[in-house]
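Consider the tokenized backbone below.
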């Protein structure tokens, strides 16, 4: 599909791009490589655990863990769009990527990223229903509702990314072909186009900005209502349990939105592109590794389910 978009719209003379990668000293290259590789392994292992544990625990067959399953899958894919190529480039002199490969990175990075922020809003609504309507929780958040909300998140995320991909693919690129980033993102690519890209930047600010702002406001609104119901919980144990299911989500939301707003809501300048690279390390390398850890730190249900799974494995040996 992306290839047909490219053939239809693009009259570029550039067939490959050169990624500048991470600006690090040669003597630190192996340390950085090892650190990023370790974080990527943690991302894969921790998120796979989040996906596998609920499958073997009947107590975790509730909407919260259905959404958490989707989030873990998103984090694995999201990180995999960027990190393997980054690791390869760290050990290579030629940091090349084809035009089609570059468009694929743009598309899937924004597809998975925007789907994730929409899912954050869905998860905050799920937490509100779980706390405010405990007796009707399973009725309100039925399988059809959960599946519908999750499907909408994926469809909206895909449509949002496709808009930016098409608008970028139709631009002519005459050179230079040096992308000042360690992966293909929209803003660095737009700066290389040999035509007026004001419409593209407006779309990036308004469409992406509207999506980010709307989902953030919905998330904040859910937590405002949650806080009102938390006050009504009389027992300390009940309040702590409710907080434990919300605190992890709130922390993850803060990390993700903070870096996303910092990157895409500011005007593009030479200095801002350098800052964008630093922010991109946070939401493509660090945050996907932290998300499952943050969710499990105060989640006794997952901890108990994990211990039971380990016991079953030991007994089966």
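A designed sequence for it:
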């Amino acid at each position: 599909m992306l290839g047909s978009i490219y053939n239809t719209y693009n009259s570029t003379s550039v067939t490959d791009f050169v990624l500048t990668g991470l600006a690090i000293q040669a003597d630190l290259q192996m340390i950085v490589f090892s650190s990023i590789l370790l974080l990527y392994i943690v991302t894969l292992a921790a998120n796979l655990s989040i996906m596998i544990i609920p499958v073997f625990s009947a107590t975790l067959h509730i909407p919260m863990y259905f959404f958490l399953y989707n989030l873990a899958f998103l984090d694995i894919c999201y990180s995999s769009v960027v990190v393997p190529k980054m690791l390869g480039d760290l050990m290579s002199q030629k940091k090349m990527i084809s035009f089609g490969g570059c468009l694929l990175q743009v598309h899937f990075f924004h597809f998975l990223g925007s789907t994730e922020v929409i899912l954050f809003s869905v998860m905050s609504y799920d937490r509100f229903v779980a706390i405010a309507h405990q007796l009707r929780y399973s009725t309100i958040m039925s399988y059809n509702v959960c599946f519908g909300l999750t499907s909408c998140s994926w469809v909206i995320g895909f449509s949002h990314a496709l808009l930016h991909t098409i608008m970028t693919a139709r631009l002519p690129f005459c050179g230079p072909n040096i992308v000042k980033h360690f992966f293909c993102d929209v803003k660095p690519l737009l700066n290389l186009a040999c035509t007026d890209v004001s419409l593209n930047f407006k779309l990036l600010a308004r469409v992406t900005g509207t999506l980010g702002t709307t989902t953030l406001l919905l998330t904040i609104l859910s937590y405002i209502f949650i806080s009102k119901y938390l006050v009504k919980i009389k027992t300390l144990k009940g309040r702590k349990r409710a907080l434990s299911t919300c605190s992890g989500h709130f922390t993850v939301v803060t990390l993700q939105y903070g870096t996303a707003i910092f990157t895409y809501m500011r005007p593009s300048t030479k200095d801002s592109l350098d800052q964008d690279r630093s922010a991109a390390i946070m939401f493509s390398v660090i945050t996907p590794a932290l998300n499952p850890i943050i969710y499990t730190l105060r989640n006794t249900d997952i901890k108990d389910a994990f211990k039971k799974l380990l016991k079953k494995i030991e007994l089966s040996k």
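Confidence is low (pLDDT under 50) at residues 3-10.
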